[in-house]
């Protein structure tokens, strides 16, 4: 089952969702949409996505957001960055699509294709 962690106000997230809908339909695969600003991720979910993405917290956080600077997160520890994403969901990079084992960040949106070419 695929899951997209989606922000409908983000153009890249909308583009990734459109590509996901198209590919999932072709492959007769269902997916779930999680609007993570309405349903924030907890620490365990973020840690699981980091493993699936095979990345560090700084690679999954939006460093250009005002909240990143306001919270003085430059040079913060992994634990501090994860807690910042829990407390301020807007800081989570978007969109993220997971198949339960592997995840991708939809920047560019075409990254979602890799979840179908396994």
Automatic annotation (TrEMBL):
Keyword Oxidoreductase tagged: yes
Gene Ontology MF terms: arsenate reductase (glutaredoxin) activity
Alphabetically ordered keywords of this record: Oxidoreductase
Residue stretches in coiled coil: none
Entry EC number(s): 1.20.4.1
Keyword Oxidoreductase included in the entry's annotation: yes
Highest taxon in the source lineage: Bacteria
InterPro entries documented for this protein: Arsenate_reductase, Arsenate_reductase-like, Thioredoxin-like_sf
Recorded catalytic activity of this chain's protein: [glutaredoxin]-dithiol + arsenate + glutathione + H(+) = glutathionyl-S-S-[glutaredoxin] + arsenite + H2O
Family, similarity comment: Belongs to the ArsC family.
Protein's name according to its UniProt entry: Arsenate reductase
Organism encoding this protein: Litorilituus sediminis
Gene responsible for this protein: arsC
């Amino acid at each position: 089952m695929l899951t997209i962690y989606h922000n409908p106000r983000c153009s890249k997230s909308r583009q990734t969702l459109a590509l996901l809908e198209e590919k999932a339909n072709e492959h007769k695969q269902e997916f779930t949409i999680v609007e993570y600003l309405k349903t924030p991720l907890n620490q365990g979910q973020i840690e699981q996505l980091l493993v699936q993405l095979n990345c560090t917290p700084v690679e999954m956080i939006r460093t250009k957001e005002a909240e990143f600077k306001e919270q003085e997160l430059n040079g913060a520890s992994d634990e501090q960055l994860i807690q910042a994403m829990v407390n301020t969901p807007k800081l989570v990079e978007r969109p993220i699509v997971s198949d339960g084992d592997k995840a991708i960040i939809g920047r560019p949106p075409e990254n979602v294709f890799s979840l179908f070419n396994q």
